[in-house]
Automatic annotation (TrEMBL), chain B:
One of its GO terms (biological process) is phenylacetate catabolic process. Signal peptide: none annotated. It holds the Pfam family PaaA_PaaC. This is Phenylacetate-CoA oxygenase subunit PaaI. InterPro entries: Aromatic_CoA_ox/epox, Ferritin-like, Ferritin-like_SF, PaaA_PaaC, PaaC. SUPFAM superfamilies: Ferritin-like. One of its GO terms (cellular component) is cytosol. It comes from Saccharothrix coeruleofusca.
Length: 169, 299
């Protein structure tokens, strides 16, 4: 059995695992890594799904187990925690920067939400999403639903390039 | 794999040693692993039935929306409806897993989705009726159904967040955010079609008339829902909130609210009792035949 190099914690290993669908981000950047507990050589990692049906959750678990085993942690358990529900506000500042650098418009911060009925939006979102390539604020939403559950598709009116936007949730 | 046969197949380099690497393939795990699963002190048969009601609503509409895959009017819409179907499928997996766990008879999500017969499904009729792409509707009818369904679910889930069942509360809190996107999508299309051309207006109007008779069932409490105070939501209390939303959307779309008589019940029974419309058998045949023909089949 390989043993973990001295000084490397399970949390550090887990935090470096990349998201399978947004590989520019680590699971820590994405804010889905809830907790890493290391006790008597056993590691319990808790992650949270981004969307209920996100198929990447299965792969995140497999990637975490693989990375931790390779780092010498023989016994690894990955748990899923649904509550509290993930929000894009948990993507770190570093994560937002990495998304932008990869040509993906990051979500804006939602902040705390009011209790009570969810307001109805009849107009397309007025939120400004600047183009991640040229920085122009003149962009339009092509589709609210993109190639993965978490992204919308937009186009820049100035450089004419389409781009993805991690939508606020 | 050793170095000698490393080039035997171009796919070898792509495939990891662990099959769970493929997100859409094998390796799906217990979806509730690690979630707080304390069962509230209520009748287990009632709680199982309630979880099935919620899970079947999501599963059956997910199946209906997936029928649009490759058939939507434009690629973006194909992707959108598939995404919405995927969100609902994710909710259904959690809810059916919970139903199986509370039941305690060893049935998992697959056994419940694929091996139950029509009379054991407890979804509302609105989820199962034909609204397109095949006979029984078109894109506008599908949008009308999605608008009504997601407005109703949103109201239900926002109350379910406070459920004494920690799994139902967590699924609702998470699903709520997804449903808000579904409802906005349907509402914006309703406005675009209703306030569009003469033809799009006619179709949107016809779509609303098609689904309106199924509205009443959404607000009719089943005895199970009334026997679980603190755990279940009484649907009768959702009516005014949902009707306000639908009225607001129709107003913006230049459409009149349909005035349709509720669809007939069979001796007072409907979807929540396992009494379904003719469309349900065909839907289940499509959804279940692979699993029943090849039990335990995996991709």
């Amino acid at each position: 059995m390989v043993t973990a190099p001295p000084g490397v914690t399970a949390r550090e290993v887990a935090a470096r695992v990349r998201d399978p669908e947004l590989p520019v981000l680590t699971l820590a950047d994405l804010g889905v890594l809830r907790e890493v507990v290391e006790r008597d050589g056993r590691v319990v990692v808790t992650i949270t799904p981004t969307y209920s049906g996100c198929p990447a959750v299965e792969e995140m678990g497999a990637d975490l187990r693989r990375a931790l085993r390779r780092a010498g942690f023989a016994e690894v358990e990955v748990r899923t925690s649904l509550h509290p529900a993930w929000t894009t506000d948990w993507i770190t500042e570093d994560g937002l920067r990495k998304l932008r650098e990869a040509g993906i418009a990051p979500p804006s911060r939602l902040g705390p939400r009011a209790a009570g009925p969810v307001p109805l939006n009849l107009a397309p979102p007025s939120r400004r999403v600047p183009c991640p390539r040229c920085g122009s604020p003149r962009t339009t939403e092509l589709s609210r639903f993109g190639a993965t559950a978490c992204k919308a598709l937009r186009r820049c009116e100035d450089c004419a390039e389409p781009f993805e936007h991690v939508k606020e949730i | 794999m050793n170095a000698d046969n490393a080039t035997d197949s171009v796919y070898d380099g792509l495939v990891d040693q662990e099959d769970a690497h493929w997100a859409f393939g094998t390796g799906f795990h217990e979806p509730l692993a690690g979630v707080d699963r304390a069962v509230p002190d209520v009748d287990r048969a009632d709680l199982t039935a309630y979880c099935l009601m919620l899970g079947d609503d999501a599963l059956v509409l997910s199946q209906r929306l997936a029928e649009w895959c490759s058939r939507a009017p434009e690629l973006e819409e194909d992707v959108a409806l598939a995404n919405i179907a995927l969100d609902l499928l994710g909710q259904a997996r959690l809810l059916l897993t919970r139903a199986g766990e509370v039941e305690g008879a060893g049935r998992d999500e697959d056994a419940l989705a694929y091996l139950r017969d029509e009379r054991e499904f407890r979804n509302v009729h609105l989820a199962e009726i034909e609204c397109g792409p095949f006979a029984g509707g078109d894109f506008a009818t599908t949008i009308a159904r999605l608008l009504v369904f997601s407005s109703w679910k949103l109201a239900q889930y926002s109350r379910l967040r406070g459920s004494a069942d920690p799994v139902l509360a967590a699924v609702a809190a998470k699903g709520l955010k997804e449903l808000a996107y579904h409802r906005d999508h349907a509402a914006q299309w309703t406005v675009r079609l209703g306030d569009g051309t003469e033809e799009s207006h006619r179709r949107m109007r016809a779509g609303l008339h098609r689904v309106w008779p199924f509205l009443d069932e959404l607000f009719t409490a089943h005895p199970v829902e009334l026997r679980l105070p603190g755990v279940a939501v009484d649907p009768a209390g959702l009516r005014s909130e949902v009707e306000d939303v639908l009225a607001e959307v129709c107003r913006a779309a230049g459409l009149e609210l349909p005035d349709a008589a509720p669809a007939a019940r069979v001796a007072g029974k409907a979807g929540r009792d396992g009494v379904h419309t003719e469309a349900m058998g065909y839907l289940l045949a499509e959804m279940q035949h692979l699993h029943r023909s090849l039990p335990g089949a995996k991709w």
